[in-house]
């Protein structure tokens, strides 16, 4: 004896399994079996509605609000051009590299490259200022 009104078929084209406990996708609102309910598994075209991410400015680490329909890259770029509070002169600049006789270090106070002999530690020349 069959129950034709009981359960629903999975909306995934390759599946169509009859499921007695079907799940409804909260983005596209189609019905899926438990194997195809995630956005990736059924290649949901409406998943962007639920994908809420807040981009962060790479310079000042401030979260940038993005309205629906706006491209995050453009909004962050506009922030960097107009509203960004990043000031490179206030940042500690530490540039490390190798030299034949040791390690060279850029000193932000003297604005010079210094060569540290390879046997010395960083605390010896006062890098933590």
UniProtKB/TrEMBL annotation:
<protein>
    <recommendedName>
        <fullName>AN1-type domain-containing protein</fullName>
    </recommendedName>
</protein>
<keyword id="KW-0479">Metal-binding</keyword>
<feature type="domain" description="AN1-type">
    <location>
        <begin position="4"/>
        <end position="52"/>
    </location>
</feature>
<dbReference type="Pfam" id="PF25403">
    <property type="entry name" value="zf-C2H2_ZFAND2"/>
</dbReference>
<keyword id="KW-0862">Zinc</keyword>
<dbReference type="InterPro" id="IPR035896">
    <property type="entry name" value="AN1-like_Znf"/>
</dbReference>
<dbReference type="Pfam" id="PF01428">
    <property type="entry name" value="zf-AN1"/>
</dbReference>
<dbReference type="InterPro" id="IPR057357">
    <property type="entry name" value="Znf-C2H2_ZFAND2A/B"/>
</dbReference>
<dbReference type="GO" id="GO:0045047">
    <property type="term" value="P:protein targeting to ER"/>
</dbReference>
<dbReference type="GO" id="GO:0005783">
    <property type="term" value="C:endoplasmic reticulum"/>
</dbReference>
<dbReference type="GO" id="GO:0043161">
    <property type="term" value="P:proteasome-mediated ubiquitin-dependent protein catabolic process"/>
</dbReference>
<dbReference type="GO" id="GO:0008270">
    <property type="term" value="F:zinc ion binding"/>
</dbReference>
<keyword id="KW-0863">Zinc-finger</keyword>
<keyword id="KW-0677">Repeat</keyword>
<dbReference type="InterPro" id="IPR000058">
    <property type="entry name" value="Znf_AN1"/>
</dbReference>
């Amino acid at each position: 004896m069959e129950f034709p009104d009981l359960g629903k078929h999975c909306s995934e084209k390759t599946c169509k399994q009859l499921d007695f406990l079907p799940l409804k996708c909260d983005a596209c609102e189609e019905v899926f079996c438990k194997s195809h309910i995630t956005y990736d598994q059924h290649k949901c075209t409406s998943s962007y509605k639920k994908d809420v991410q807040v981009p962060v400015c790479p310079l000042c680490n401030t979260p940038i609000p993005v309205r629906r329909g706006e491209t995050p890259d453009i909004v962050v770029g506009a922030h960097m051009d107009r509203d960004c509070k990043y000031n490179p002169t206030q940042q500690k600049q530490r540039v490390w590299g190798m030299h034949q006789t040791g390690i060279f270090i850029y000193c932000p106070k003297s604005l010079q490259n210094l060569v540290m002999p390879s046997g010395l530690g960083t605390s010896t020349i006062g890098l933590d200022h």
